[in-house]
Write a structure and sequence with these properties.
6-stranded parallel β-sheet, alpha/beta, Rossmann fold, 7-stranded mixed β-sheet, 18 strands
């Protein structure tokens, strides 16, 4: 018998907030009811407690990347409680507080998956995203509905354990922003005292500052927003560089060993290359699209610089960052909202009017 109720319907009734995509793309989210497939023997059913609101949710709603399938229900920073576990589930039991990030499946047989990089799955469709279906859809209309809902069904291998004592609401952003920034920082192989710059102190960036600081780096917050100076110091930055100030940019010329770019919208990367010391490297994550300006390879080649891209993290890295944050007392800064306020939150997100992450209290969805 499955570990849960004695029997479970073939369909799971679900309430969510999304859009059918009719009319203007990216229009207001509204209440939707739909059915999820019942959990298979290797899957768990979660009641969702909290869900983070990510910039990529907004991009998905507005079809900024040309990948959106409608109807669309966003949400991929999910913390929930296990309410049903299939017969073959061994890692989780009823009542466990767990997380679900960017992925709910992958082929698990390609070389990337076998090497623990499901986020880089080389199967026909890439990883199956928590919202919006396949990452590389190649004409498929396969869709998945995310965490702006009251429940979700997930394959066991893609469920994360929330460390005991960690606040579940503030854990939600770690499932995307946390792992997306932790992976590149880990690959920097930071040595104590190395100088790391973090571009954009928003949802991912504020977590990156705390992570890099805990790894022993001398952290500089790089932001165009003077109002973020004080909070950057509170997060653990030793320096703050205002990127619109030409004198400050010149002062930090050739200064950094590593730079992590966390800004979600297109920008010119060339000025930041000038901040790197020889053999330095910059990784751009969060921004999925062309750079503004023209990137001249001489900027890289003349000083042996490296420019890399990064997107979502693997399951192992996601669990690792959860454990790392629990060990080091790192807690994302959040503003808790009710589901009925999601459209106001989206408008504020467009204006960068949040410090630093909206998180939906999913109990409000039932109440609404």
């Amino acid at each position: 018998m499955d570990k849960g109720t004695a029997s479970i319907s073939k369909k799971i009734q679900t309430i969510g907030y999304g859009t059918d995509g009719k009319g203007t793309e990216g229009k207001s989210l509204g209440r939707m009811e739909f059915e999820r497939e019942a959990p298979k023997s290797n899957e768990v059913l979660l009641d969702i407690l909290y869900c983070g609101v990510c910039d990529s949710d907004l991009h998905l709603l507005e079809n900024s990347w040309g990948l959106t399938h409608y109807p669309c229900i966003p949400g991929h920073e999910i913390v929930g409680r296990v309410t049903f576990a299939g017969n073959d589930v061994t890692k989780f039991k009823i009542g466990d507080i767990v997380g679900v990030g960017n992925m709910v499946d992958s082929d698990l047989t390609c070389s990337a998956c076998r090497e623990g990089e499901e986020n880089l799955c080389e199967g026909p469709h890439g990883p199956t995203l928590t919202q919006g279906g396949y990452l590389f859809s190649k004409g498929s209309d396969y869709n998945t509905f995310g965490g702006y809902s009251n429940n979700i069904v997930v394959r066991e291998e893609f469920v994360l354990r929330i460390p005991e004592g960690m606040d579940p609401a503030s854990a939600a952003p770690l499932l995307c922003s946390g792992t997306a920034t932790y992976g590149p920082l880990k690959r920097f192989n930071i040595k104590p005292g190395e100088r790391v710059g973090i571009i954009d102190i928003g949802g991912p960036g504020h977590i990156a500052v705390m992570l890099a600081n805990a790894m022993g780096a001398e952290v500089t917050a790089i932001t165009p927003d003077e109002t973020k100076r004080e909070v950057a110091f509170e997060l653990g930055a030793k320096n703050v560089l205002i990127s619109t100030n030409a004198e400050e940019m010149q002062k930090y010329s050739g200064y950094f060993h590593h730079i992590l770019g966390t800004a979600p919208d297109s920008y010119d990367v060339t000025p930041y290359l000038g901040l790197l010391r020889r053999r330095g490297n910059i990784t751009v994550m969060a921004m999925l699209g062309p750079f503004t300006g023209t990137l001249n390879n001489f900027s890289l080649a003349s000083r042996g610089l490296s420019l890399a891209g990064s997107m979502i993290g693997s399951i192992a890295e996601t669990q690792e960052v959860l454990n790392f944050c629990a060990e080091h007392g790192i807690r994302s800064r959040i503003e808790l909202i009710k589901m009925e306020d999601i459209n106001k939150a989206m408008e504020r997100l467009k204006r960068s009017d949040v410090r630093f992450r909206f998180v939906i209290d999913s109990s409000s969805l039932q109440a609404s």
